[in-house]
Each structure stands twice: as structure tokens, then as C-alpha cells.
Amino acid sequence: MPRTSLTVTKLSDAGSPDPAEAAQRATAWRRLVSAGAAEVTPATVRQWASRGHLEPCGLDESGHPLYALADLARAEKATRNRALRLAGIPTR
Q: In this structure, are residues 67 and 49 in contact, taking their beta carbons and an 8 Å threshold?
């Protein structure tokens, strides 16, 4: 999975950020977190969404859905627990 770097600027260093720039950085951050944090591929996220396991929490400037990290983590955990149950391994 490709890694994306994100530059973070302190407000004290840059002054008051431009609202458009702040929105752009927030969108970049959500994109980075959406697919990378749960260590799943974008295709997996799309499958979970098509099956109803995920609901988008917003859209980026291109109209692509964005997902909350907590929702991704829940879907990933549920998928992992189901796979363990099917293999006969108790989850608790």
C-alpha cells in the first residue's frame, strides 16, 4: 500500500491558516487515515461499503466518499472476528 506524507504546520509558525488551505489539508488527512489506518486496501473499503458495513461520513472535493477511522476499525475487527469464528477459533 503506498504511503503518503503529510506536512503539518503549527499555527504559531504560519499564523492564521487560509480557510481553503485548512480544508484542503483536512481532506488530505482524512484520505490518508481512511485507507491506511486500518491497514486495509481501498478495494476492501469499497467492498465493505457496498455490503452496507460502512457509511461515508463525507465526500472529498472529487466526490469520492470518506470514511471515519472508528467505522473502518469496527468493520475490520468484525471481519477478523468472523474469519476466526469460521475457522473454529473463539474470539473471546
A: yes
